[in-house]
Amino acid sequence: MTKQMTVTQEATEILDRLGVAKAAWTGGTLASFSPVTGEQIATLPVASVADVGAAVERAQAAFKEWRLVPAPRRGELIRLLGEELRAAKADLGRLVSIEAGKIISEGLGEVQEMIDICDFAVGLSRQLYGLTIATERPGHRMMETWHPLGVVGVISAFNFPVAVWSWNTALAIVCGNPVIWKPSEKTPLTALASQAIFERAMKRFGDVPAGLSQVLIGAGDVGNALVENPKVALVSATGSTRMGRIVGPKVAARFGRTILELGGNNAGIVTPSADLDMALRAIAFGAMGTAGQRCTTMRRLFVHASVYDQLVPRLKKAYESVSIGNPLTSNALVGPLVDKLAFDAMQTALEASKSMGGTVTGGARASVEGDAAYYVRPAIVELPRHDGPALEETFAPILYVVKYTDFDEVLELHNAVGAGLSSSIFTTDLREMETFLSARGSDCGIANVNIGTSGAEIGGAFGGEKETGGGRESGSDAWRAYMRRQTNTVNYSNALPLAQGVVFDIE
Ligand code: NAD
Prior knowledge:
Helix content is 38%, strand content 20%. By secondary structure, the protein is of the alpha/beta class. It has a seven-stranded mixed beta sheet with strand order 12-15-16-11-10-18-19, sandwiched between helices. A five-stranded parallel beta sheet has the order 7-6-5-8-9, sandwiched between helices. A three-stranded antiparallel beta sheet has the order 3-4-23, with no helix packed on it. Helix 4 packs parallel to helix 5 (163-174). The longest helix is centred in the N-terminal third of the chain and has 30 residues, at 71-100. The chain starts with 6 loop residues before the first helix and ends in a 16-residue tail after the last strand. The model has no long low-confidence stretch (mean pLDDT 97). The structure holds nicotinamide-adenine-dinucleotide. Homotetramer. InterPro entries: Ald_DH/histidinol_DH (IPR016161), Ald_DH_C (IPR016163), Ald_DH_CS_GLU (IPR029510), Ald_DH_N (IPR016162), Aldehyde_DH_dom (IPR015590), ALDH7A1-like (IPR044638). Its EC number is 1.2.1.3. The active site is at residue 261.
């Protein structure tokens, strides 16, 4: 960014370069702000409930065509999306930083994640496989086949404004499904940009049915119209547990399918045998990275009493010295909070910590870009016990630190929260490591050893248990959620034996 250019001007230039029509982000009623400076950067027209219904009809028509396209050919479209994303990486990554406030390397990293899932999905398009299963009947064959599911509705959160869409879309498209995306109302511009990039890929591909990929701009009411529409076969919703509590039962009531990727309250355990230098760096990134606004951010830390005084003072020093600044114009490691609401929630949690006897280091507002932007010094809170605000996710950079002495007891505390997304242990003791990864260890969807709680790769299935919603996205066999399974039994004999020895002979 040149010195004269405002964030708004830069966003405008990027949107122009990426081919987003001006009418899509000007003259509407949804104001979009950049957390970097707090300035308003766009006013977007929003979808109505009727628009949602029309989009679902278009997607349903697209489904009827797309499900007939062979999966490897569908993969070709995602290969082209990957190519377009590679070409647009610098612009889209920067727009992520402008709209979500991430530091540049994280904005670019998010786009890299989109590219990675495209590569993964292209390979997947040639290995959507089912099982053949032994049958008890002679001259019969039994097998499972996987068919496209239907319209996929994607509802996404502000903090991963584009990666979550790509995780869902790359898989949904190779699995034969159209996608309708309702991005966060806080990050609509990156959504429009991603759609414009995908449209270029679709144009190069050629014969894509209209309505295969659509974006609906708006807030929760627009998401709700998708949730309530019985023609949306799968709702993949990423966001707070509060949102999931509303969305989950509504989709279940119409027997729809959900992937829920909700809040996390992720913890690390530092044991007596831990490599403390490594732990320090991993905790610093896990807890302060993205200004504490990752679903996988480390929010709780249990430190064994024997290493507490070696680790915690160093950690506090790192908190006091970490660079905070404008992610577009500095190399700072910590950018802004998304808005005032996030700042207020952080202050409330810190007050609650103090009133239960916690010692707070950091947490004050940092003056970086004036009154409209909310930069804050990450906070480390030493708590006398694992309780109060530590039991809930506050979407801000607060790390609660609790001393422990007994390994079995700390496992209990680790699991004693509602969320179940990510977890990690720092140890060089084989028994502790394996116990943490065993049935009586971490109850989370992600359990790491000697790395932090955040920064997952796309090859593994991503998601969490309990109040995190139970969904899985991204790698491994997450694709199965985007397809319907059919069990087929074929009789190639001259007889009609019935299973379980049932006899039903008619004259
Ligand atoms: P949020 O719940 O406020 O909003 C998320 C999305 O849900 C937005 O698009 C919003 O418009 C939509 N929404 C809200 N109410 C709705 C309703 N009644 N019906 C349909 N849609 C509705 O979340 P946020 O503040 O944008 O994101 C932060 C939260 O997301 C944190 O809790 C974080 O842990 C979580 N998150 C989880 C994951 C994960 O993979 N588990 C990933 C990223 C973020």
